[in-house]
Amino acid sequence: WPQHLNSIVFEKAGAKHLPAQFSIILRNVPIDINIDELLVNIKNDYPDVVNAFRISNKDEKPTTLVRLDIKCTKIIDELLKKKFMYVNNIRYTVTEYISPAKVLVCTKCYQIGHFRGVCKSELQICRTCGTSVMNVKDHQCDKIKRCIRCNGPHEASDNHCPLIKAYRIDLTRSLLSTSSNITGMNQNVQQNYIYNKNDYPQLNGNKDGHPWYNDSLTATNRRLDELVQ
């Protein structure tokens, strides 16, 4: 990338994270382990690992989950297949990284689930103090942070709002459930033949049509629940 253009100096700023599909989760990493040192040790055996970040829970407290960004998809596939990684002779469980769904928040009423352009509220909400006003530009805010949704001491636009976090978890879980159902349906479509579990009930008593992806979804839900505890 050029550093100069028409006498203007440019600086290339890299993204903090790689896309979610280039990440995995390292589980059960003790809180007292320094992430920078962990990354150095990991890169000794896996030089394609470019970043490591410890994941926080809804209270912004560190968890034992560490996100690894890896620039080689082949390494990601190998680690997910092995389901573990050794670092300094310590074995850590490796699981897929589940990217949280983005939550839509209206910038007029600061409620969840719609755009400002379709908002039906006649009043505007001050994102800082949570006061309802006709015109927020004329509002004299007291600068005391009070979320309109949860009454917490933060601005309504703060993505760390517990209600936004809970909504994001539910939305992610819902999207994953839908994706799993579609995947299971596609597995049954072969040569114009569609398997219907009502026509051909399973003999082993398993009421779930596709236990393999149901188990996967259950494991994913468990990982999501860990982040909201």
Provide structural commentary:
Residues 182-193 and 205-213 have low confidence and may be disordered. Strand 10 (189-190) and strand 11 (193-194) form a beta hairpin. The protein has 229 residues and is an alpha+beta fold. It has four helices and eleven strands; from the N terminus they run E-E-E-H-E-E-H-E-E-E-E-H-E-E-H.
In short:
The chain has about 230 residues and is α+β, with helices and mostly antiparallel strands. About 30% of the residues lie in helices and about 20% in strands. Among the domains are: about 5-95, RRM (RNA recognition motif) domain (Alpha-Beta Plaits); about 160-229, no CATH class.
Alpha carbon gap, first and last residue:
44 Å
- Which secondary-structure class do the elements indicate? alpha+beta
Give the tally of β-strands: 11
Order of helices and strands: EEEHEEHEEEEHEEH
Please identify, by name, the CATH architecture of the domain at 4-96. 2-Layer Sandwich
Number of helices, counting only DSSP H or I runs of 4 residues or more: 4
**CATH fold description of the domain at 4-96:** Alpha-Beta Plaits
Residue runs with pLDDT of under 50 for 5 or more positions: 182-193, 205-213
- What is the 3D form? elongated
Rg of Cα set? 23 Å
Give the CATH superfamily of the domain at 4-96. RRM (RNA recognition motif) domain
Oligomer: single chain
Across the major sheet, the strand order is 4-5-3-7-6
- Mean pLDDT score, rounded? 78
Largest sheet composition: 5 strands, antiparallel
Tell me roughly what share of residues is in helical segments. Answer: 25-40%
CATH class of the domain at 4-96: Alpha Beta
Percent of sequence in beta strands: 15-25%
